[in-house]
Amino acid sequence: MERLLVLARHGQSDWNLKKLFTGWRDPELTDLGVEEARNAGRWLKEQGYGFDVAFTSNLKRAQRTCALILEEMGRSDIETIRNEALNERDYGDLSGLNKDDARERWGDAQVHQWRRSYDVPPPGGESLKDTAARVLPYYIQFILPRVMAGERVLVAAHGNSLRALVMVLDGMTTKTIASLEIATGIPLVYGLKADTTVESKTVLEHDIDHKA
Predict the structure, then answer these.
(1) Domain total of the chain
(2) 205: annotated active-site residue
(3) What is the rounded CA–CA span in Å between residue 198 and residue 210?
């Protein structure tokens, strides 16, 4: 039985380009972000992948990425489920601020801790631990059963909501997760075993498959 789970971070957004903390704010994709999403769909199609269902967040940069991937694969007709459990982490008071300006105000160390630590939230926002507390139950209740039933599942979401999920899938610790970066528009292709653990992982880039 095929147990396919593909994770894709949205393409570059306008606020990514401007180096702004985004969180639950809702900017559009840039032209580059649109092309990143389309490329992800082309690469997946070239490698022979297909999907039966897609999950995405309530934020339009992830929704647009999901739609563009499926469009490139000729699968715009499949069921697509949106839920805020897959939203980016809430950056609270940092939302809308330039990252360089934030470093000047609070210092490199503090901003790095807010961005990369597991359990220290920015003022008024969520830590990665908080984000995981909503992403993982949603994954277990709604996404994983579809994968285990043999359906091919796409999840188009965000850097931190996907980091929370990859942390569990890859068996990372609260310390090693700090160094994990998930690139925009690069699919992570997982094959799961019958016990729900990971059998295979491929980071899918054009003409380059990094086996992990």
Answers:
(1) 1
(2) no
(3) 16
| Nearest partner of 22 among 77, 83, 80, 102, judged by Cα | 102
CA–CA separation, 199 and 202 (whole Å): 11
In the set 10, 72, 126, 151, the catalytic residue is: 10
Type of residue at 93 = D
For the residues 112-118, what does the mean pLDDT come to?
91
The CATH number of whichever domain residue 200 belongs to comes to 3.40.50.1240
Return the residue matching tokens 């563009």.
68
**Which of the following is catalytic: 88, 126, 151, 158?**
88
d(C-alpha 54, C-alpha 45), whole Å:
15
| Residue-range definition of the domain harbouring residue 169 | 4-211
Is residue 10 flagged as an active site residue? yes
Provide DSSP, the chain. ---EEEEEEPPPBHHHHTTB--TT--PPBPHHHHHHHHHHHHHHHHTT---SEEEE-SSHHHHHHHHHHHHHTT-TTSEEEE-GGGSPPP-GGGTT-BHHHHHHHH-HHHHHHHHH-SS-PPTTS--HHHHHHHHHHHIIIIIHHHHHTT--EEEEE-HHHHHHHHHHHTT--TTGGGG----TT--EEEEE-TTSSEEEEEEEETTEEEE-
Confidence at 210, pLDDT banded by 50, 70, 90:
very low
Q: Is the distance from CB of 199 to CB of 193 less than 8 angstroms?
A: yes
Q: What is the mean pLDDT of residues 123-142?
A: 97
